[in-house]
Amino acid sequence: MGNEAYSAPEIWQGxxxxxxxxxxxxxxxxxxxxxxxxxxxxxLTPTKVIESLKDNPYRxxxxxxxxxxxxxxxxxxxxxxxIRHIEAGAGRQxxxxxxxxxxxxxxxxxxxxxxxxxxxxxxxxxxxxxKVPAHVITKEQLSRECRVYDKAKHNNVVRLLxxxxxxxxxxxxxxxxxxGEDLETAIFNVQKSKIQLTSSxxxxxxxxxxxxxxxxxxxxxxxxxxxxxxxxxxxxxxxAVIIDMGLAKFFQxxxxxxxxxxxxAYSAPEIWQGxxxxxxxxxxxxxxxxxxxxHRDGDGVCSRETPxx
Length: 309
Description:
Elements: H1 9-12, H2 19-35, H3 46-53, H4 59-65, H5 76-95, H6 97-102, E1 106-112, E2 115-122, E3 125-133, H7 139-151, E4 165-167, E5 170-176, E6 180-182, H8 183-188, H9 199-218, E7 221-222, E8 231-234, E9 240-242, E10 249-252, E11 255-256, H10 269-272, H11 279-295
Domain Protein kinase: 1-88, 103-309
Protein name: Protein kinase domain-containing protein
Pfam families: Pkinase
């Protein structure tokens, strides 16, 4: 039983209605809601549904819901996850609109021995565009960094916005731009910081940092270079975002995909003894960051712990 207008292709062939046919019907409903146009009952193909959405942000997930092959359709759990991701992105974009209007077209965000990061437009939106001289990074290193980003899709980990490209003998890597400040500023430069580190704000930041790191570790990714500079805090929501995955590596069953690199100030005791950086050393670094964050009092007073001892 069921209506004809929202019947999946397999139903017209005599198949039994199941969860996948429900997903197909929901996909058509979402498409009609987005377009405010009733789609035809007969002869409706996945291509026609997708084309009806054009540049709509829901096009990607709807395309997975109306696959002709029922077995290839997304589950509703996957649909909900993707929709939440779309909504979160839209919310961050709207919250950042006022800041965007006043910013210059290009602004240097950070610089180091591996290159520079600029605030620059990418596909009509702001990005943190990382530019690395081609002689500094090998294709293998670039490929590893992209694989890390591909596996590390989480709200508390910076996102790769698109494929890197080579221009002016530099690799251009477009990353998510976070409208906020780094935790280094929030903890140690209260005069410049726009964040009030109340107990509830600290709790939000700590939760976000830990959830991001836990997700990385669940994918067998070791960051290697955790420090307050590499954690951004979004001004609007206090969302913590782990950034700078350039030294991150896959580490599983004692096998490491990259060398033993990272900063000294947040190195665990075993690293000073020559041990390899792993998930445990990441946890140590995060513990020190949390201690420094908690130690900053209401007057913005916080002293940095020394690297050794």
